[in-house]
Write a structure and sequence with these properties.
The structure holds 2 protein chains of 2 kinds. Chain A is an alpha+beta fold. Helix content of chain A is 22%, strand content 33%. In chain A, strand 2 and strand 3 (34-41) form a beta hairpin. The mean pLDDT of chain A is 82. Chain B has a 5-stranded parallel sheet with strand order 2-3-4-1-5, with helices on both faces. In chain B, strands 6-8-7 form a 3-stranded antiparallel sheet. By secondary structure, chain B is mainly alpha-helical.
Chain lengths: 78, 897
């Protein structure tokens, strides 16, 4: 299957060095004090693995968006 | 190598001296246990103090209730192997309450059987047990989860389970919650209240802070304990606390990032290095950390980290093993990433070396994989194959095999053959031979230097590989029912096996025996299995050695060797007693002996054996032989005339029957059909025979013999019910007799002679009937067969009277006649209220006259001490005495002994 792009929003501003920890996802700091992780997810298992890493870190998860889904209103932004 | 149980996993972490007393939470937990709720669930993300709360609660519980036993199990990812999980679960319970989980256990037993035994033992335990499963979020394997769900579904009242997990476990929690059997604490309950935060920062950490400072920290961390703890560490020995707090509060940075930076910045450089380098380790000890970091003072560093409260958790009470708080380890690991993968691999490589040299292979393999050093991983895996296979942790081993690149496996004959085995157990029979052939090529090839051209290290496993290859080939032949192929390869394996390769010889002989059995060569089969049993015993595998007794008995009975069968069971039971084994297959052996005793018409002794078997519990039965108990019990019920009960027991036997590699030589359906004949339900009896397509004109072979004799019985019964042409049954019996005699099967011949005799009697030819009856008596008398006559009822009584008149085998016929009259006359369901001592009681009485102790007598009779005491009580009652000496004296006076 094709690789989908996801963005994942977390509470707090994470240090850029976490990028490697999160499988090379790009880390963007948002003005509201949150962080967005953006990157490719090969399949559902990879997505769940990544979410578990977030949970292991004790970070609060705000939202998960699949940017490659056409019905996703944010998909036009990329 | 049995799986070593790591004590660190069972260590109950002591409460932290500086921890905040959380009585509002421990009171909730106490209430749950007090009102008898089954489960406590503490579900919250990392850093909410789950483990700390549990250890504080447990310390308080243990102080208040010294009778409460605590079983603690810290779970790891490797516990997703069901065998490993159960091993640790049992170890944890046994560590807490020695009466639980102390017996031997077959690692192949299904989880539910293992748990049923545990549950029964816990029910009988004199103490309540609190079982803690920490880090349950790591459990992803469905089998392990099902095992825990099964335990929760059948939880004895003596056991309370507490689970701590970062995410809600995939267990039937909502059902337990709906029944009001759940005590639950979640993140909202766990986070520090403003009062607790204040208590922690000022009292526990000794910081001087204003109420506003505390409130600001509490808000910034949202009561997240790990955050507050890091904040406290950052503030220690800092002069400008308000400045730190306002900077922290004003920052948007992730709490951990901000605070770890602060903490590490203030730590000495060598400590910082130490922390980052050792973050790759799941467990820390001084020597291991020395090996990984190259430092020499790691033990002191670890102790100082513990004193400084720097997220180091002790794993034992003698300051040997520690681990980092998981969250802390994760943060440290990302600081290591910029150093590059080579650097990280080197650290893992050193850890792997250390573990390997300390005999901890599983950790050595784990770190070798982390280091991407496949050749090291392959080497360590090869060395662990014998041990891991013995402890039957197959899924661990198979998981490793999957992670190795094919080119690494293909250079190693030992791993190649192991991979062939993996194909075999997964039913991919077709891919076994190519792998075996490749391994043979590897073994045969040599380099220019005369050295082997493969990568496998010299080892016992490598030395016996040619034998193993032949054994797997025999197994492939077995999968396709190729008896000749089994024999060829098993014999070749036996020929090339070294004299001291006991495991190889045992397996090869067993396969030969199996092929002989399936081809009807029973004496050869018995001899081969006896050789196999002797080799298995030498290899230290008592369980399998004792199990062969059951297989051998299946061949000895049609051979008519009842005496040898009894001797085999008695010596196997004696050996089992000698090794104090209450594990499998002891219960199956009792059931086997019961069948022999039943044939001897010692029904009471047979019942005792079955009771003894039952009393040992499910763990003493082996999976593949479990059905035998029901078959033996059905035999006893049939002899008592309780045919419906016998039929039901056979139905249960069918449910427990596992189709294995052994031929089904006395199939349960045929035993059921025989009960139907006795119930005069001939249509049903005939139905099951026809269903299998058996007819009187089939070609006969040993494997269908029992079925064909059953068919002859149906035909005979039909002939008796209405006069039909007797020639089909006469012809079938004559052919069956030829076949049985050609195969040397005296036991089968005995039964066929009896049926011939009954057939003639039914035709009114009593005088002629005595000829086959005499043959039957000649075969039966030396071995002591009784029931085979008695089970035939009234027609047999007539025949035996005629035999007595004709003076055939007078002693034996008199004995049979008497037994038959007793059976026919007695109301079998009621115990005779006679003052006369039973056979069994006379036996006990004779032993009481010796100097043997009670337990010795019980062992001699293969019964429990309780049963033995019951006998003694009856003897005393009947002899009207109150002591052993008086009983013996009385018996002597009465001429009983």
């Amino acid at each position: 299957m094709d690789t989908d792009r996801y963005d994942i929003r977390l509470e707090g501003q994470l240090d850029p060095r976490w990028s490697d920890w999160f499988e090379g996802f790009a880390l963007t700091h948002n003005s509201d004090g949150t962080t967005t992780l953006t990157g490719p997810i090969t399949d559902q298992a990879a997505l769940h693995g990544l979410l578990r890493r977030i949970s292991d870190l004790g970070v609060v998860l705000i939202s998960v968006n699949n940017l490659s889904q056409p019905q996703n209103p944010r998909s036009t932004q990329q | 190598m049995a799986m070593p149980v790591l004590a660190t996993k069972l260590f109950v972490p002591p409460p932290r001296p500086q921890a905040v007393q959380r009585s509002r939470l421990t009171a909730k937990l106490d209430d749950g246990v007090r009102i008898g709720r089954k489960l406590t669930l503490i579900s919250a993300p990392a850093g909410f103090g789950k483990t700390t709360l549990l250890s504080e609660w447990i310390a308080a519980t243990a102080r208040r209730d010294p009778e409460m036993r605590i079983a603690w199990l810290s779970l790891e990812e490797s516990d997703n192997d069901p065998v490993r999980f159960l091993t640790y679960l049992i170890a944890a319970l046994n560590h807490a309450e020695p009466s639980v989980g102390s017996g031997d256990r077959d690692p192949q037993l299904p989880a539910e059987a293992v748990l049923t035994t545990l549950i029964n033992e816990l029910t009988l335990s004199s103490h309540s047990v609190l079982l803690v499963l920490d880090d349950f979020q790591l459990i992803e394997d469905a089998t392990v989860r099902d095992a825990v769900a099964f335990l929760l579904d059948h939880l004895p009242s003596r056991l309370h389970v507490a689970i701590a997990s970062r995410s809600d476990p995939l267990l039937p929690v909502s059902r337990i919650r709906a029944r009001g059997e759940l005590t639950e604490l979640r993140a909202a309950d766990l986070r520090f209240t403003p009062d607790e935060a204040s208590d922690f920062l000022t009292t526990a950490m000794g910081l001087t802070l204003t109420r506003e400072d505390v409130a600001m920290l509490e808000t910034r961390t949202e009561g997240w304990i790990a955050g507050l703890q890091l904040a406290a560490l950052s503030m220690r020995e800092r002069s400008d606390l308000p400045g730190f707090i306002s900077a922290f509060a004003g920052s948007n940075r992730f709490v951990i990032d901000y605070l770890i930076e602060e903490v590490l910045e203030r730590a000495p450089l060598d400590v910082r290095e130490f922390l980052c380098q050792t973050a790759i380790l799941d467990r820390l000890s001084g020597p291991l950390c020395n090996a990984v970091t190259g430092q020499t003072d790691s033990a002191e560093v670890l102790e100082s980290l513990e004193r400084a409260n720097l997220f180091v958790v002790p794993l034992d009470d003698h300051r040997e093993w520690y681990r980092y708080h998981h969250l802390f380890a994760d943060v440290l690991k990302i600081r290591l990433l910029p150093h590059g993968s080579d650097h990280i691999s080197a650290l893992h490589g050193r850890a792997s070396e250390w573990y390997e040299s300390h005999g901890l292979s599983e950790d050595a393999v784990h770190h070798a994989f982390e280091a991407a050093d496949f050749s090291r991983a392959a080497r360590v895996i090869e060395a662990t194959i014998p041990g891991v296979r013995k402890s039957r942790q197959d899924s661990t081993l198979l998981g490793w095999l999957d992670r190795l690149p094919p080119e690494t496996i293909n250079r190693r004959p030992v791993l190649t053959v192991f991979s062939a085995w993996s194909s075999l157990v997964h039913g991919a029979v077709g891919s076994v031979e190519p792998k075996l052939a490749h391994a043979e090529q590897l073994l045969a090839a040599f380099g220019d230097d005369g050295m082997p051209a493969h990568d496998s290290e010299p080892s016992d496993e490598l030395a016996s590989l040619p034998v193993t290859i032949e054994l797997y080939r025999a197994a492939v032949a077995m999968a396709s029912g190729d008896q000749a192929g089994i024999k060829t390869h098993a014999q070749r394996g036996l020929d090339i096996a070294a004299p001291d390769d006991h495991l190889g010889r045992g397996a090869a002989a067993g396969l030969l025996g199996l092929a002989s059995w399936a081809s009807g060569e029973l004496s050869a089969g018995v001899a081969a299995f006896e050789a196999s049993s002797a080799s298995l015993r030498r290899a230290g595998n008592l369980t399998d050695a004792l199990s062969t007794t059951l297989v051998i008995s299946d061949m000895l009975m049609p051979l008519g060797r009842l005496g040898d069968t009894q001797a085999a069971f008695e010596s196997a039971l004696a050996e089992s007693f000698e090794h104090h084994s209450s594990g499998q297959p002891t219960a199956d052996l009792h059931a086997g002996l019961a069948e022999v005793l039943r044939e001897r018409n010692e029904l009471f002794a047979a019942t005792e054996q079955l009771a003894a078997s039952d009393a040992l519990g499910e763990g003493a039965f082996s999976h593949e032989h479990r059905y035998r108990w029901f078959v033996a019990m059905a035999g006893v019920r049939q002899a008592e005339g309780r045919l419906d009960a016998a039929f039901d027991l056979l139905t249960q036997a069918e449910q427990h029957y596992r189709r294995g590699f052994f031929p089904e030589s006395r199939p349960i359906w045929a035993r059921k059909a025989r009960i139907r004949i006795l119930q005069e339900r001939l249509t049903e009896a005939m139905g099951s025979v026809s269903e299998l397509g058996l007819t009187g004109t089939d070609e006969l072979s040993y494997l269908t013999e029992f079925g064909h004799i059953t068919l002859a019985r149906v035909l005979l019964a039909q002939h008796r019910a209405e006069p039909v042409d007797p020639s089909p049954v006469t012809a079938l019996l004559a052919r069956l007799l030829d076949s049985a005699r050609a195969g040397g099967r005296n036991g089968s011949a005995l039964e066929i002679f009896i049926l011939q005799s009954l057939a003639l009697e039914a035709q009114g030819q009593t005088a002629l009937a005595l000829i086959p009856l005499e043959h039957a008596l000649d075969l039966a008398a030396p071995e002591g067969f009784v029931r085979v006559f008695l089970d035939e009822g009234a027609p047999m009584l007539r025949l035996l009277r005629a035999a007595a008149g004709a003076g055939i085998r007078p002693d034996y016929v008199r004995q049979l006649n008497q037994a038959l009259r007793e059976t026919a006359g007695a109301d079998v369901s009621a115990q005779p209220a006679s003052e006369v001592l039973s056979e069994r009681e006379l036996h006990v009485l004779r032993l009481l006259a010796t100097s043997m102790t009670g337990p010795e007598i019980a062992r001699e009779l293969y019964v429990s001490l309780n049963t033995m005491r019951t006998h003694t009580k009856h003897i005393f009652l009947k002899l009207d005495v109150t002591s052993r000496a008086a009983a013996v004296h009385r018996a002597e006076v009465l001429g009983l002994i």
